[in-house]
Every structure is written in structure tokens, then in C-alpha cells.
Amino acid sequence: MIVRIMGEGQVKLDDAHFVELNKLDDELLEEMESGDQEGFRRTLGALLDAVRRLGTPLPDDSLEPSELILPSGDASLDEVRQMLSDDGLIPG
Description:
This protein is of the alpha+beta class. Helices cover 46% and strands 14% of the residues. α1 runs antiparallel to α2 (37-54).
């Protein structure tokens, strides 16, 4: 799957990594619902770090269609809330 981190670029992620990413996404959703700003910031950073660590960066000049778009690390709670689906940021 091709994942775009807003403001950074794209990475290719193997579907096997989505179990780990979904755990972080669920935690992020809980923190957003409770208004836990500190937890939200920490978990968003951990989610983006995991995508960077587990994924393979695509070249900057590559324009692959992104199947998933994640917010930048400095996105606000309200900005991320607008990007959410019923499943959180990551479907599944």
C-alpha cells in the first residue's frame, strides 16, 4: 500500500504492518475522543515514526496514487479529526 504523510512524501508499506499501525490508530482515536492533547501528540508521532520505520520511501519525483493519507506530525487535533473515518485514520 502507498501511504502519504502530508508535507513529507510517500512510503510503500507491506499490508502485514497494518496490525501494528491499527493499534496506534485505535489509541490515537481514543485520545482524540477524550481530548487528551498530550497523548494525541505522542501517539501521532509514534504512528508516523512507525510508518517511516516500516515503510520504504518512494523517490521524491514519484507520483504514485496514495491509498492512505496521514497528517503531518504538527497537525492539530482538529485537523486530524477532520481526516478521520469511522475506523480512524487507518481503515480496518
